[in-house]
Design a protein that fits this description.
CATH topology of the largest domain: pyruvate-formate lyase- activating enzyme
CATH architecture of the largest domain: Alpha-Beta Horseshoe
Helix content: 25-40%
Structural class: alpha/beta
CATH class of the largest domain: Alpha Beta
Strand order of the largest sheet: 6-9-10-11-12-13
Number of strands: 18
Shape: globular
CATH superfamily of the largest domain: tm_1862 like domain
Radius of gyration: 23 Å
Number of helices: 13
């Protein structure tokens, strides 16, 4: 809905959400707490409040968070009145009281526990501030509000976070320290949230968490994920149900049998972070399935021969020899996975892995990462070429910024924000629409398609 100007009691908020979809959901819920008072500001200069939700999972994410805060602070330092700079998220959780003295530019720090009352905290900080003179509203669009969230992913899809924290003890990971132990959301709450998303026009729901296979264990639920999916799958309007981040040891024959019987709208898409393929490195990582990760891949393909498989790997973990890396390289080559992300190991203070020896030189880490990415580029290109000439349903996410009749969308085997996209030529497509297209061309990671239905 277009709105020439915000209501006089609106709070103009410019938002930057860094890191994973779980952070994005936290941001959406925080904005939702403002209710009708929330008004999106398209730039820091047009805002009364700047909300930065940070990531600190690895050092590059810490650096990005700090750089973002400092850049925003520099942009607004000469404004009068100056927007309230608010920071929340993993950076604050990881470093806590160390941050305020080092970043005096930040006006308000919000902890995870305070996120559900941030509206009260910012209103207290804003006081009786007058609206900024000369503020231009004409080109802003009122955000679409769901019952408890301001959806920021566009009209076609949304994320649903089913649990927080993690009970695993991976030697390289800070998530249990930053986010705490596993805390699952009640089934009824998640069903209500999903119903709200679908009522707003969402057709694809992506279930996310640190480990969705652990859902409900802390609530005493047996087969918690299965119980949740049984409630979500029949919801009216749900066209795609995508599972993101299944811990490998949780992908059992029993779960796969259940998923096979469920059928649509569940997608045969499996996002499984393996992290490595050699048992010695997996053991050093503290992964509880170190014997042979290929068994997980084979098991999935036994039930879903058509499965789309995504994973992530870490190169240069302490003790990784050339032999270990060659085993990983062969694994990637032989399993032919659809989507692979590769990260060079980052020794994070506070993790057991940070003190492990021998250390792999940074240049070697990056070299191995690049070799895996080059291999995966060839695999991805080959797999996508098989789609050319096929007719597929594409969910349109947004118009292409360069061409008026070009749109960006996704097939069922392309997850939002992490996989490739499909460029659709169409005279009638609109964001949030599911349309049948014929695949015209494949690239390394992306597809191009034509909407043949005509005007």
């Amino acid at each position: 809905m277009k709105q020439d100007s915000p209501d006089t009691d609106s709070i103009r908020v410019h938002t930057v959400s860094l890191g994973c979809p779980k952070n994005r959901i936290d941001t959406e819920k925080m904005l939702g707490r403002l209710g009708p008072e929330y008004y999106p500001a398209d730039s820091p200069n047009a805002s009364e409040v700047i909300l930065v939700n940070t990531c600190s999972f690895i050092q590059p994410a810490v650096e990005e968070s700090l750089q973002t805060i400092l850049e925003l602070a520099g942009q607004i330092k000469d404004l009068d009145p100056k927007p309230l700079l608010v920071v929340t998220g993993c950076l604050q959780a990881r470093y806590g009281p160390e941050l305020p003295p080092k970043l005096p530019e930040v006006d308000l720090w919000i902890s995870f526990k305070e996120q559900d009352q941030w509206d009260r905290l910012i209103k207290k900080s804003l006081g009786d501030r007058d609206p900024r003179p000369g503020f231009r509203q004409a080109d802003l669009e009122r955000a679409r509000l769901e019952p408890a969230r301001v959806i920021s992913t566009g009209p076609g899809f949304a994320y649903l976070k089913i649990n927080e924290g993690c009970n695993h003890d991976c030697s390289f990971c800070l998530i249990p320290t930053i986010r705490g132990p596993l805390v699952s959301q009640p089934v009824e709450d998640l069903v209500l949230e999903a119903e709200g998303l679908l009522a707003g026009g969402v057709q694809e729901i992506c279930i996310v968490a640190q480990d969705i296979t652990a859902y409900g264990k802390d609530l005493g639920l047996k087969n918690g994920l299965k119980r949740l999916l049984e409630r979500l799958a029949p919801l009216p309007g749900l066209r795609r149900l995508r599972l993101m981040y299944l811990y490998p040891s949780g992908v059992t024959r029993d779960l796969l049998s259940f998923l096979k019987q469920m059928g649509p709208p569940l997608l045969p898409y499996f996002d499984i972070p393996l992290q490595h393929a050699h048992p010695e490195i997996l053991s050093r990582m503290g992964r509880p399935f170190q014997a042979n990760p290929a068994r997980t891949i084979d098991l999935i393909r036994d039930f879903f021969p058509e499965a789309c498989l995504r994973t992530t790997f870490i190169t240069g973990f302490p003790g990784e020899s050339e032999e270990h890396f060659q085993a990983l390289y062969r694994f990637v080559r032989d399993t032919s996975l659809n989507h692979v992300g590769v990260f060079a190991f980052s020794p994070e203070e506070g993790t057991r892995a940070a003190g492990l020896k021998p250390v792999v030189p940074d240049t070697q880490k990056q070299k191995r990462r690049n070799r895996l990415l080059e291999l995966q580029a060839e695999i991805s290109s080959s797999i996508l070429s098989e789609s050319v000439g096929q007719e597929m349903e594409i969910l349109i996410d947004q118009p292409d910024p360069e061409w008026p009749t070009l749109f960006q969308g996704r097939t069922w085997f392309q997850a939002p924000e992490v996989d490739g996209i499909t460029y659709v030529s169409s005279l009638q497509a609109r964001p949030g629409q599911m349309i049948r297209c014929r695949i015209q061309e494949s690239k390394t990671y992306d597809l191009t398609a034509l909407d043949e239905s005509g005007p």
